[in-house]
Design goal:
CATH architecture: Alpha-Beta Barrel
Oligomer: single chain
Number of helices: 11
Strand order of the largest sheet: 4-5-6-7-8
CATH topology: TIM Barrel
Structural class: alpha/beta
């Protein structure tokens, strides 16, 4: 429990060593995100650098540092961070491959949880999900829709969805802009309409869309209206709201989600991912403040910041 709030926090969305994650880089290359290879990536990064620097300055974040030489040292550092900020459990949704995340969780099983994050279009994807969950103890499946080679509602993916539904694990599906400034702005396959088709096909499978759906927020709301198994996670700075053609704030997002989707389908996440920034306490504080200022009853606040995640992850501890 956080001593200053009397509130248990379960963070549904962190990344381990995301800047050095070769599994994600492979997916980027597969969809042609870097058509010119290393040179194109370097040019794009240089163009985005001013945006990234301005964002870090605005939020008071330091520049990222390279990962520690040993992943074990970085894992221990994350465990210390979570203890320091009174985060009861945290889910690493990526981390360099399913076995790498499973090893990470095994190092601090009292604090860490992990998701599979392999390509659903890869041969044997359903069997790999089964192995990752049953044999390695992972608790869900993270998918970047903009990095897929086809739509989420392609029937070829049905064995994977059926496996996730049978195992009772949630699927975290990123839609919309991928990456920060200079990232992948759009994809033919990153729209909530594809997700809605799958969600109706597999009504007992819980889908969670991070970052409020990014630029597809309106379509996500309607998909959630249509499908009671679609949830929203609140993770990240949500700086994308500044690029919308109409005024939109984090408070607006919370209020509309709360009034329409409801508190039982909103899941807190921080999107913490690199050092020396470490755990992004500011995101937690800002979101809690918004919920309190909205006048949410304590039961709804507890659901958003821990209870819903514990239900989706089937955590039984107190």
């Amino acid at each position: 429990m956080t001593a200053d709030r009397g509130l248990e926090i379960v963070d549904f969305h962190l990344h381990f060593r995301i800047g050095a994650d070769q599994t994600i880089r492979n997916c980027e290359e597969a969809v042609g995100m870097h058509p010119g290879g290393a040179r194109e990536r370097a040019v794009r990064a240089a163009g985005a650098a001013p945006y990234a620097a301005a964002w870090r300055r605005a939020w008071g974040f330091p520049d990222p540092e390279p990962p520690a030489p040993r992943w074990e040292d970085e894992a221990d550092r994350w465990a210390a961070e979570l203890r320091a900020h009174d985060i009861r459990r945290a889910v690493f949704v990526t981390g360099g491959g399913n076995d790498a995340v499973a090893d990470l969780v095994a190092r601090h099983p009292d604090r860490f949880l992990g998701f599979a994050h392999h390509d659903p279009f890869a041969p044997g994807a359903a069997a790999e999900l089964e192995r990752a969950v049953v044999e390695r103890g992972l608790r869900g499946w993270k998918i970047f829709a903009p990095l897929l080679r086809g739509p989420l509602d392609d029937p070829v993916l049905d064995p994977g969805w059926a496996t996730a539904q049978r195992l009772g694990v949630p699927v975290l599906v990123h839609v919309g802009h991928y990456g920060s400034a200079g990232g992948y702005s759009a994809s033919p396959y990153d729209h909530p309409r594809h997700l809605a088709v799958v969600a109706r096909r597999f009504p007992e499978l819980a889908f969670v869309v991070p970052h409020f759906g990014v630029q597809h927020v309106q379509d996500l709301f309607f998909a959630a209206w249509s499908c009671a198994n679609i949830h929203v996670d609140t993770s990240g700075s949500n700086q994308w709201v500044r690029w919308m053609p109409y005024r939109l704030t984090l408070e607006d997002l919370f209020r509309r989600c709360y009034e329409t989707i409801g508190p039982e389908r909103i899941v807190f996440g921080s999107d913490s991912s690199w050092f020396p920034r470490g755990y992004v306490r500011r995101y937690l504080d800002d979101q809690l403040r918004i919920c309190r200022e909205m006048g949410m009853p304590d039961s709804d606040v507890r659901a958003i910041f821990a209870g819903n995640a514990k239900r989706l992850l089937r955590l039984t501890e107190g």
